Structures are given as structure tokens and as C-alpha cells.
Amino acid sequence: MTAYDTRAANGAGESATLAAFASEFDLDAVPADIVARTEDLFVDWVGSALAGKGVAPVETIAAFAKSMGPADGPCETLIDRGRTSPLFAAMVNAASSHVAEQDDVHNASVFHPAAVVFPAALAVAQASGASGKEFLAASIAGYEVGIRVGEFLGRSHYKTFHTTGTAGAFAAAAAAGRLLGLTPAQMNHAFGSAGTQAAGLWEFLRDGADSKPLHTAKAAANGLTAAYLARDGFTGATRILEGAQGLAAGMSSDADPRRLVDRLGSRFAIAETSFKFHASCRHTHPAADALLKAMTEQKLAMADIASVTAFVHQGAIDVLGPVVTPKSVHQAKFSMGTTLGLIAAHGRAGMTEFDEMFDRADVADFRARVTMVLDPEVDGAYPARWIGKVRIVTREGRTVDARVDEPKGDPGNTLSRDEIEAKVIGLARFSNAADPAEMTKLMPRLWAIGELNRLGPLLAAG
Amino acid sequence: MTAYDTRAANGAGESATLAAFASEFDLDAVPADIVARTEDLFVDWVGSALAGKGVAPVETIAAFAKSMGPADGPCETLIDRGRTSPLFAAMVNAASSHVAEQDDVHNASVFHPAAVVFPAALAVAQASGASGKEFLAASIAGYEVGIRVGEFLGRSHYKTFHTTGTAGAFAAAAAAGRLLGLTPAQMNHAFGSAGTQAAGLWEFLRDGADSKPLHTAKAAANGLTAAYLARDGFTGATRILEGAQGLAAGMSSDADPRRLVDRLGSRFAIAETSFKFHASCRHTHPAADALLKAMTEQKLAMADIASVTAFVHQGAIDVLGPVVTPKSVHQAKFSMGTTLGLIAAHGRAGMTEFDEMFDRADVADFRARVTMVLDPEVDGAYPARWIGKVRIVTREGRTVDARVDEPKGDPGNTLSRDEIEAKVIGLARFSNAADPAEMTKLMPRLWAIGELNRLGPLLAAG
């Protein structure tokens, strides 16, 4: 039992216990690999934040922020290198982070932490002149809180609510509150104010409406608001998560308060977070990884391959099966054949590859030679494990089988720093937020964020 | 059937039908008494907005708005006569409107419309240079939408959620969207964005925490945000209220979509809204009104009265019974004896009376001569009707009975314009937001708001 297990066992509310952890934990006691992982997730997030540039709903939110906010300020909006107050920087950066679908995800909580945690943490750190270490500690606080709130709210919540919107407000409050130096009691007041603003409904999916980036924008902004208010003495409900008229009472039927305080201080849930590698539907990722592995190991070129069979779970067939001849970049991301074609042609299926070559002749030709087959082993393991299995038949008539047991980006098959850099540079180039030369030069500064005495703007030109 | 009944019956979604009404209805077709009622509610609201000045949670929200927002702008924050952007003006004015508990209420929806509608409408009207007529039309749109959303969400919703927070976001979106000239489709997108931000949990009551003004602040600000985003092309769910993953699916178990479109264009629910007259707990109001009636009709002075028996419903005994000797102004508002003592001493039980004389010797003495008795008729009629019945025994030994069938402020016993003025002037004086001379001078301008060609600041000094 950690000190927090003991505290909870002794009758402190779970909200209060989680708040105390977020306020008090000592970064020096956090294992070095967790801190390094936080740096990885931060650099990966910069790519997602830049990727939102030029996307209509994000630009609409950014224009709203500009019209309602101050003309200048200590904080940075990444897509346009603008300066504003913490509230609007958090709002705009969170909107842009969640629109390219390249931001990280925690599987068990079905929660996208980076899109809400880093925008809030960066804004408050830039406003308060925090050190890089304080920024990393705040980010860890945000992940640990948000993931546990998502796990607590459970599957019943996720049926109707976008957990990244609801749990995200707590994650942002924790990150912002940590940087503002909130006491445990103040942090719990911030949770109370965050929870009583928590929102985000899935109904928009039915219309393909623009709500998704609004959810992250408001989660980050509302959590940040809650933290500043708490710093200035504003009180909130002390059992906002587990109370009789709290968040779970209103929005969940299977909430388990023990998940809120699960191994606080010994389990770092941030390490369970997955990176998104390919820019396609997640159901294509296991087969894409297996194909890439086979081609690399067997030194196969695109022209060597006569056909590919992808052995998949039923969900992949349900979602990807209808897409035979994709008509748009977005639809191509739901085409197994296109994704594997891009892997075969380029070794990558990123934003740029989809945008530039999803319907190129060689990719379209390859697409027609890909088949999906339901596989009992793969289907049985899903969704706990996403196994990738492919069978290649070469032009020479040779059969090559390959498998990966965890898709690229999951904790057991994580991205290297080189791969994260390549992803981030590609996303920035794709959206025209920054060219590769600038991003390449920026990278050492991003990796070394933990060493800064005082956080300034990330991108050079103000 | 109105045109909107027909539209709904023909398969348009209820959200879309309600949005079309808010966008399209013709102010010239609204009965004159409804427009006059809207003016009454507006002037009454100014009092509540000014009453929040100096209250800690309101001032904390105002300071946050100042630190995050622009240094100037076209919109007015009433408590400090500051200027800012529409977002922050709506936020601060809505926070201040709901903290003195003097703002209006719609009984059937358990929704406080003024606190969320007028702040959003005033901010957008001042920013856009709207006319007074457009402002009144927008306010009516806000009331009609918010009340119907509150009725739709029902009692199951109100058990956990503060309807003024959740329905309030729609009310503010309707008011703001009407002033921004949203088309019916855009208005429904605004509803989608408002609903996916809608929040507000009762859990704070358990701690007596500061969330209540935060709920109105965020409802007004979020609704306004949704309207501006919709104007700029941002889309939202088209069935956010009734959809399978919409607001009712997530937050209600007794929602009835027919309530959303109930007699749109023929029933003006704004006319069903009650004014709050006395500054005490609502459970004291019926008896206070009956006492005042008896004293006026019988020309009784405080010194003439030996004892008062208040015949009440059980809820009044439950809530007021424990308060024997109030120790604070706030607690005195839950004391039947104190409330009746102030009525007897001063003919009023307003903010100033409570603040200045709740424990004065003559009031405390009167308090000890007040008894509550459960009355079968009063209890049976509650909560549909709040009957006031008192029996006075005079020093001379005479018995005087009095009753009122609707408490002062309810639609059947509404406030005169003189009474509204006195209330507003009293609230402004109480909070030191404006002195009686200034308020008296201001009154004709407030009553004539519908005649303005272009809305400017309400209070003279900028």
C-alpha cells in the first residue's frame, strides 16, 4: 500500500486522495523511464498540435479565441505562433491537437491525454515562468489523474460521453493546478469546479459534426479555469467524482471509485499510453506493422509482392470492409489495401503519404491485391491485444508469413525517439505549420524541455 | 397546431424545430403583454446582476475574466462598469446574477432564465450594435428555449444536475444566436455545440461550495461561444437534445421530446416566470405575503401584534424548522420568524432589511412570537400552488386571518413596475453597485430599452 492507498482506506474521499497525489507527489521520486516517457509524449504532442493548422473547425475556434481574447500575452498558440492569455492558448492548442487523430491514447480508459494535458500545462507554465521540471511534473499529474478518472467512469460513461472531454477537464485541472502550486485542498476544489463543468456527448458522430476538437478545447480551458479559480480561493465540491450528486451519479452506471486511487505513486499510468503511428484507422495498424516487418526482414520491394492476406478481427472487417475504392483521403484511411499499399510503396502511412499518394496508380494496384480474412486467434485476442498477421505471396511464388503481437506505438512496441521525430516533422510539414528544417533544428530543444529553468515559447518566431 | 407543431409532426427533429422557432419567430407577432413582461424581467435582472458585486465567488470569477480577457471591448460588466469582449461580459454578468438568489425562476422547469439569458443577450447586443427590439426578441428566444429544454430534461435530470447550468447553455445560445442572425440550421448547430458543453452538478451543495455562480457564468459563456462558432460555420449535432447519444440519453431518464416543441409560437413560457420578491427562502414567502396583506388591510403596526401563526406545508417545516435563533444574515433568511418580523417592522424583507436588522431587538422579539403549524390545505396544494395563510392575534385580543393564493412574484400575483424598481434600486444599493439617485435616474432608460436603435452601455460611467 502506498501512502495514498492508506489515506483512502482511512476514509478520505477518492477525489480528495487523487487531488492530494496530484498536488504532492515528488518528481524526484518518479522513475527516470517515466520521466523520459513523458518527454516522448510531449514531443509527440507537439506534432499533433501543429497538425491541426488549417483544419476548418480548429481555425474557427482559433478565430473565436482571437476575437474574444487579448491581443497579446505570455502564452503561445502553436498553429499560428500567436500570443495570448493562458485560457485561450490552452483552448486553441487543445483544439488543434485532437483533429488529425494522431494524438496519443490510453487504451483502458479510452482517453486521449496529450490533447488536454499538454495544452493546459504549457499555457500555465509559459504564464508562470515555470521550469521544465515543473512542466513535466504537471504533465504527469495530468495523465495520472485523467486516466484514472476515465477508468473510474467506465464503459457505461463512454457509451454516451466522450471521455476525453469529461475526464479531460480533470486532467487539465491537475496539470494547471500543479503548476499553480495548489495545496491538496485547493486541488480538490479545482477538481470540484472542473467536474461541474465536465461535458462532451458522442451525438455529434451521427452528423459528422465538428464537436470533437471543441471537446478537447473546452476540457483544457475549463480545467485551467478551475485551477486558477481554486488558487484564488474559489471552492468546489469535495467529492465531485464519487459523491451522491457528483459526476458518476449523473453520468455513469458502472463507476468504481477504487480506480481513482489505484496504486497512486507506484503505478504510473502514463507509461501505459500508446502513440498513434500510422495516420489510418487503428484497425489497419496491426497488419501494416506485420507487412512492414516482413518487407524489412525479407528485403522485399513493392514490386516483389503479388498479394497480401491480412488476418484480422471481426471489427476490422466491419469497419474497413465496406471501403473498396476510396474516394477521399479521409476514406482512404479506412482502406486496408490503401494503407498496406502506402507501407509497401513508402514504408510509411503518414499524413503526407495519404495526402499525396492514396490514389496513385501503384498504390491503387496494390490495394486490389490485398484481402482481409477473419482469423480466430486475432479475433479472440481482441480488444485486449491487437495482433497483426499477414501472408505475402511474392511474384516469384514464395509465401512469407509475418506477425506482430503489439501494434507499433503500444507500450510494448513503442516508438523510438527517431520515429517520434520523423512523425512530428511529417505532421508539421503536412499542415504547413513548420518546415522540416525548422522542426529538425527545434527537436533538441523539445527533447531537453526538462532542463529549462524557465519555459518560453516553443517555436522561434513570435 | 402552429407551424412548428406541424413541422415536428412531419418528422423534423425536436432540436431542429425548436432552433427554427428561435431563429425565425417574428417579434411583431408576439403579444404586447409578452413584450412588456420581457421588459419587466429585464429590469428585474439588472437588480440581480448588480446585487452580485462584492460577493467573493463572483469577484473571483470577475478577476479571472480580467486576467484572461482583453483590457477593453464593446461589452459591459455591470458590477464594476468594466469593458471587455462578449465572452467575458456574459460570463461575469451571469455569475453576478445568480448569487443573491433574487433572480427570476420558472417553476415547471425549475430553471432560472434571467441569469443566463440576459447576460448573453446584452453582451452580443452591445457588441453587434443591435436595436432594443432585437435585444427583446433575443431574450424571448432564450426564455422560450431554455424553459422548454428544462421541462424536457425533467425531474430525473434535476436530481443530479443544476438545470440552470445545462438548459442554460441552450437558452444563452438561442439568445446570442438570434442576435447574430443565425439561420435555423445554424441555430441548431449552435444548440449542438451548446449541448455538448452543457454541465452543472448539484454535488457542491453538500459542501456549500461556490459552484452555483460558476454554472450560470459558464452556461452563458458556453452558449454564447456556441452561437459565435455556428455563425462562423462550425457544425454541431443536429439532434443534441433527443438523439441516441444526446443530452437526454446521457443525463435524464424521463425526458419527453414533446415538451421541446410545446405550442411554439402560441404559448409564451416567458409569461409563466416568477419574480423573487422577498430576499428570504422561498418557503417563507406565502406567509410573509399573507402577513403583509393583513397588516395593510387592517392597518396594523408591528406593535399591535401579539403573535402570528403561519399555516404551512411540510417542506417549510423541514427547511425552516431547525432555525430558532439565526446567527447570520444567511441563516436568518431561513427563519420564518425573522422574515415575518422584518415584514412587520418595515413592510419589506429585502437584502437591505436582512443585512441591517435581522437581529435587531424588535425583530428578534417578534421572531419569538411566530409559530409554524402544518396545514392540510396548504400542504395538499404544494408544490403546484404555494398558498399563504396566517392568523394574527393582536395585543387587543383580536384575531385576524389572512390568506394569499399565489405568493408575490408568481404570474398571478406579479410585481408592479414600481415594485420592480424598488427591488432593483434596493439591490443596487445593498451591494454598493449604484446609489439610489443614479438608479432612479437610470430607470426610464431601462424600461425603454425596446425603443433604442442601438444598445450601448446600461450604466453611465464607462
UniProtKB/TrEMBL annotation, chains A, B:
Gene3D superfamilies: 2-methylcitrate dehydratase PrpD (1.10.4100.10)
Domain MmgE/PrpD C-terminal residues, every copy: 278-447
MmgE/PrpD N-terminal domain segment(s): 17-258
GO molecular-function terms, A-Z: lyase activity
Domain of life, per lineage: Bacteria
Coiled coil: none
Family: Belongs to the PrpD family.
Protein name stated in the entry: MmgE/PrpD family protein
Organism: Georhizobium profundi
